[in-house]
Description:
heterodimer, A: mainly alpha, 20 helices, B: two-stranded antiparallel ribbon
Amino acid sequence: MAITSVITWAIIIEFGVLLASITILVAHAGWLKWRQHHYTPILKRARGELQSLLFAQAPANHPTDSLEKLPLGDRIALIAEVARSLAGAERERLRSVAARTGLVDWAESNANSRVWWRRLRGARLITLLGSDSAVMSGLLWDKNEFVRSQAAEWVPDHPNSGLVARLLVLLNDEHKLCRFTAQNSLLRLGDFATPALVEYLSAHTGRRVVGALEVAAHLSDSRLLDPALSLCADTTPLVRARAAALLGALGGHGAVGRLNDLTKDPEHSVREASARALGHLSQWRSAPQMTVLLGDTSWNVRRAAALALTSLGSPGLVALNLAARNTDTNVSTIARRVLASLSAEDNMPLGVRDDSADHI
Amino acid sequence: MIALITFEWVVLAYFLVVNSFYAMLLVSAAVQLRQHRRRVWQESIWRVLSSDLSPSITVIAPAYNESATIIESVRSLLTLYYPSVEIVVVNDGSSDDTLGILAKEFRLSPMDPIYDEIIPTSPVIGTYVSQDHPELIVLDKENGGKADALNAGLSLASGELVCAIDADTIIEPDALQRMVRPFLLDDGVLAAGGTIRLANSARIQRGRVIVARTPRRAIPGFQVVEYLRAFLFGRLGWNALGGNLIISGAFGLFRKESLVAAGGYAHDTVGEDMELVVRLRRHAIERGEPGKVAFVPDPVAWTEAPESLRVLGRQRDRWHRGLCDTMWSHRKILFNPRFGRMGLIAYPYFVVLELFAPVVELLGLAGLVAAFAFGAVDVEFAVLFFLAAYAYGLVLTVCTLLLEEFGYNRYEGIGDRFFLLLWAVLENIGYRQLTVLWRLQGMAKYLRGRSEWGNMERRGFGAE
């Protein structure tokens, strides 16, 4: 029967595939075993060479025979493993070792490839080594989001104003990974990026400044005060909330007044952010505003206001005790809960119930 | 007679459809794995994924009578590499000394956190914080079931993302860094699942799996092969097809906001992990959002598989009841174009090829026996068909073992690989048929309206 012969052929093919698969499995296992046996001593010597070159002040022409004998993948893995924990002169020495063993050329060549994952590998290795590379700047405009993101990660090691400007543009990239990496890189740049960040926040409004505001809140540089104050009036609630968080991190002239104004914002997220910010600033003058917020319609706002009052010292405690007797159950409930938690203050976990702006 | 023969042809067609789908999933999984490995090659997860800007995570671990494994599990949670993590262990009215062991080991003291009980649960008796590890909170409550415990933890959680795990799960140290990736790639991701491996026979030190080993006993051995298939082949394959409808309750990461909006975990089902994901996606799509669920093959969590047939049977019975319940509860999704690939591909797959699979297998076998009895079957054909089916299943499994070999190679010993192959070969001779019976049992119980969990007996990690 035709169907019987079809099934017979199917069985033959299946068993053939099975045999091939098992052979590959066994062969790969054997190969790994051989590899481990063969390369483990070489790897050990290569680690020794690397250690001498990096830490024992061996001369620059110290042999790297074992490193060069390692397969490319293992060599890269070893260099990468070490690179992550090096900085300064040691990292520079590692770069020269990588150059001697052909890895820098390999990385540059891959970074220029037409295939995205090769470009990514090249960019990753260049970033790991902290090398200065002309090709990396160009990768900030790469069509592949992973390559673009990797280039953004490289920038803090070789910053210049042009690259910082590109990072600010990447804050609004269509791909979230690029936006996130750009934010992280700006954060790592710190003081170097602050003037550009100030200029960016002063010149833009709306959703496009949200990412920049999040970075700014972590930098907490006083130069960011003016744009923060200005963005508190933005038409986008998310921007106002982020600006409030930034003011909470900065403090400064005008911050408390502006935050007090924001406690009357129609959006609960903005009111919550301003309550948290005022809590960070611990300004007793905001106690009346916080007391009003204890009766807010939003639980999160009530909580933030109550916790803010606990940071205001005596005026805050007085306000909470009065609020505990309020006829409005929302007000009295939250006040009592916070007062009860204060009585177990020694057991309060550090940072666990933290109302930092990060959680807004 | 004609009806019998026709039915046998229907079963054959079903077999072809199922296995074609599996082949498609396998190819998809291989492509996905290669792409993923390329993307994460030498990735500096410390620098980027451990940023101050990374989303905060609360790990929720419900615990019920976990005295044998709770210390190891919590220790593994405390050593997770992540900048901003909070751990909430929910003691769900354990009748053993789970809370006492925790209190002694981690020096717990009472605390009074201020949080809103977003989702009502059974009463909370007390909340404690560790004096040695301030990020560890223990919530003690009256027994209400796993879903109830998770909801209690959800209310208390302060993280933007929540990671739900089983208390007897050991998570790899960098698992959260890897699991957070999908959320950094796409705002539309609601949840991410990770790979679960079985720790039976593994060498464990200080809450970490040091060496993975294939169990030398058949029952856990078969399950190791099943889990590899389910995660490396099944879930990874579904990533590209947009059809991940389940995230293992042993290890999953969710946006807290989406979880709360969808109403948290459901009480009235024993398949809360699948039901939750389906409900999350449905809720998101109905609101006009993408509702994506991602599977990350990298992060590894380890759990203990049942080592006795009795406990395993209860587990599979419960899983199938959960599947029945979820498929019925959300039947509106089936073939509904509004739900895109979930409605047109994933949901029909789970209904036809997972839910009804044991029924078809049983009827197919019964039909075959009847056909033999009536002399209506060509013996040669039947034997060849059985061989073809068996060999095909084995090919899929061995290909999965190849994915593991070339992708992760966690089973390093020659003996381990030998036993993986052995269990793959023997799996379809008896064990698979048992799972069919258990699933049918689960289906029957569901139709009769039974919803209990049963007791899981644990040997403890590292026990041989």
